[in-house]
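#onboarding

Welcome to the new folks! Below is a worked example of what a typical request in this channel looks like: someone posts a single protein sequence, and someone else replies with the predicted structure as tokens. Don't worry about understanding the tokens yet, we'll cover that in week two.

Example request:
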Amino acid sequence: MVLVLCSCQSEGEKVEHVEAFIVENTIMNAGGFYVPAGYKKVNSITNHEDNRGATLSRVRAIEDYYDSDGNFILTKVYDQSHKRLKNLQTEDTNNLEQELDQPLTIHIPDDHAWKPVQLTDEQKDEVKAHVMKHTKDL
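Example response:
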């Protein structure tokens, strides 16, 4: 009987999250305490890959900022990536950002429920396409 064992290493784990949510913004006051300063609506795509040679992370997002009264302030569109090479112990980070004067997020209600939006698969596809469209030319 011949037994052959294969010790194969996988190409790594790839994870992608497509999300839409509202989160409260805070600022530090003169007394050193964080106080509410409005909120932001976020559409984002987060990718993470971990393999034998590197760990790669990338966040593409659209963030619409509002004051505490619900008045729109500005939109930030960004593409942030981070790469860590395991063998060389080196890291590289890239941040691209643009500010706009109109809200762009989609599939986020205005009810300030402060909970994640449960997106359907179709909505996830729409959010992903929307974020990709607005971050591709940064």
